[in-house]
Each structure stands twice: as structure tokens, then as C-alpha cells.
Amino acid sequence: MTERRIYLDYAASTPVNARVLERMRDVALSNCANPSSTHAAGREAQDIIAAAAGQLGRLLNVDPDTVVWTSGATESDNLAIGGSARHRAHRGRHLVTMKTEHKAVTDMFEALVKEGFEVTWVEPDGNGLVSPEVFAAALRDDTQLASIMFVNNETGVIQDIEALGAICRERDVLFHVDGAQAVGKLPVDLGALPVDLLSLTGHKFYGPKGIGALYIANRPGCRVEPILFGGGQQRRIRPGTLPTDLVAGLGMAAEVAATRIEADLKHLRGLRKALWDGIRSVDGLTLNGDPDGFPGILNVSVEDVEGESLLLALEPVCVATGSACNSKSQEPSYVLRALGRSDLQAQSAIRFSVGRQTTMEEVEFAAARYRDAVARLRKLAPGAVA
Ligand SMILES: *Cc1c(COP(=O)(O)O)cnc(C)c1O
């Protein structure tokens, strides 16, 4: 029997939903206009984009006018953090974030340090959570922006966005949330949550790659300076010709998600439990993250085995070591190091991430493969991890 690929890397990217693809195809085939054009075809493209903003607005419970389209969460994070820090530099040059954020956030903050901003990196606890007390203690009178991710892409840990946002409101600090792993997967009600800026991306919730959005709350003081300059589209906040078909696809992904978040979560909980039950008997296993985290992600380290070898031994199961964005480097995951894991523990980490199409049979196969792979690698090189 030829082995079928088993894709357990939904945190890196998800398959495009059939209704999303259908919508994108319809739009791509029926409207070739530049949505910036004022003729009838251009106006139709604008209507398609407005409809997508409506769909995304309903998912997030916000006014569609608060949505700015971008190329993905990397750009949204850069625009939110760089754009608001620079806009409010007169208010203070102190910024707060965490070491466990995505590179699109941490590297933007590093860039701002070079521009003369000062960053406080809040320490997570051993599970990866930041407590409201620790967070509040990091804020100063000259703090103008804090950025904390909703669901961690490596561990699945869910931060208490409501509590952290409330502290920011009290202290008049802008609050940005990287919601790339949360939107479309957990209920995210921006009508109720004290969040000023939220980044998201289509391909993490069954939409297309290359399209994302930044929510910018309609509140006084909540403004961003552009990081791109050009034709003045999207009120100059993010110029550039909008890809009508991708925008329509993201809108449809939001509409589909809105109808099935609870059912998806139930499915994911069952899968994660089966996966964990299937591997928990392995000696020297450590769970990275929080048992109450997002059920689509299970990250585990194991003693005396090296992650890259484990990854190869797990084939045809596709999983991630550290995070997909870091797996080209041999450096242990900086996220797991920040949780206090040793280099060796971080190096052996495997992130399983499951989604809508994952079956029970697939996770059971993956668990068996994991048990066998660990046993095999230990036999090959007993106790020998360089
Ligand atoms: C995937 C991801 C990003 C980057 O999104 P792109 O669409 O690939 O730019 C940013 N933050 C988090 C938490 C992510 O998971």
C-alpha cells in the first residue's frame, strides 16, 4: 500500500474551503476590473469587496468600515504595531509585548527599537500565559501600545484578552492582538472585547493565502500611519490594488466559519484527546502549553530524541518542529525557550495541529507513528543527543 500523506499542520496553513474556492472562481471569472476604477465594472468590484467586509464584520461583530485589507497577518501586525507606534510617538516611546509572539510581531518591535522606541518583553509563566498582574506591572506612564497574541501558534495557549485589554483601556494604552490563530476558530467578539487593533489572515481559517485584514477600532486616538505608500486606496491606510477574488474568498471563509465554530471546536477536542491518549504513555514526554488551550494544537517535547530526526521518522505524517517559520533554522524554538524549556527539550518539540478535515483514524495513525518513531530513534542512539 502506498502511504497517503497525513496533514497535521493546520496551524501553518489550512485547505481552502470548497465554498470559498467557488466564490473566488466566480469572482475571478466574472469581474476583471480594478476596484479603484469608477466605471460600472469597477463599482461592481467595490460592491464585492464591501460584501466581503460585511461577512468579516459579522464574524467579528464589528462595523465593516473598521476592516482594512492587507496581504496577511504579517503585514497586519507590521501595520498595527509600526503604524500606531509611529503615529503616537509623541505620547511616549514605550511599548509592551511578549517573547512568545510571532516573528511578525517581535521583529517589528525590534525594528522600532532601532527607531528609538523602548520595548518591555513580558515573561510568560511555564504554560505560556501572561497574568493580568504581570502585564499591568509592565505598563508605564509613557506606554502607548501593547501587543499580545490571542492564540499562540506554537503551543495553542489562549491569553486572557478581555482582562489584558481592560487594563490597557484603564491606562489609555492602545491594545493590538495578533488574532491569526483565533479568528474563525474561536468566538472573537470585537463588539465586546476591549481590543483596538486585531490582525488576521485568510489561510489560517480555510481561506486563501495572500490576503488578510487589520481591524482598526473606530475610537478616538486609534489610528495607524501607513507603512506602504501609493494610490491612496483604503483611505491611504493601506494603498495598493485590492485582489477582488482573494478578498471575496476571505469574506466567504468568515461566513462559513461563523456557522461552524462550535462544531469545529467539538471535532478538534475529540481529535486532540485521541492524539494525547495515543502518545501519553511515551516515557519522558512534556506537554508544551496549557491543557485548556486551543484544541487544534498539541505540542510535545520528549527526552533523548532530536526533533528534526523525529520529523523525518514521522513521515508520511506532516507536522512541525518548533514553528513552521523557524524550522529552516536549527535553533530551538524561542517560544518554548521562553516557557523555560531547555534547549534539548525545545529541540525535540513536535507541534501536531489538526483541523476540519482531520479524521480520528489519522490522529490514531499519527500517534502510533510517534510512539514507534521515538522508540526507534532511542534504539538507534540510546541516550545520545548531541
Ligand atoms: C501565520 C501567522 C502569522 C503570519 O500570517 P501570514 O498570513 O502568513 O502573514 C502571524 N501571526 C500568527 C500568530 C500566525 O499564526
Structural overview:
This protein has 11 helices and 13 strands. It has helices at residues 18-30, 40-60, 73-87, 103-114, 132-138, 161-170, 244-279, 307-314, 334-338, 343-347, 360-380; strands at 6-7, 67-70, 94-98, 118-122, 143-147, 174-178, 197-201, 212-216, 285-287, 297-302, 317-318, 320-321, 350-353. A 7-stranded mixed sheet has the order 2-8-7-6-5-3-4, with helices on both faces. Strands 9-10-13-12 form a 4-stranded antiparallel sheet. The longest helix is centred in the C-terminal third of the chain and has 36 residues, at 244-279. The protein is globular. Pyridoxal-5'-phosphate binds next to α3.
SSE layout and pairings?
Layout: E1 6-7, H1 18-30, H2 40-60, E2 67-70, H3 73-87, E3 94-98, H4 103-114, E4 118-122, H5 132-138, E5 143-147, H6 161-170, E6 174-178, E7 197-201, E8 212-216, H7 244-279, E9 285-287, E10 297-302, H8 307-314, E11 317-318, E12 320-321, H9 334-338, H10 343-347, E13 350-353, H11 360-380
Parallel strand pairs: 1-11, 3-4, 3-5, 5-6, 6-7
Antiparallel strand pairs: 2-8, 7-8, 9-10, 10-13, 12-13
Helix pairs in contact: 1-7, 2-7, 3-4, 7-11, 8-11
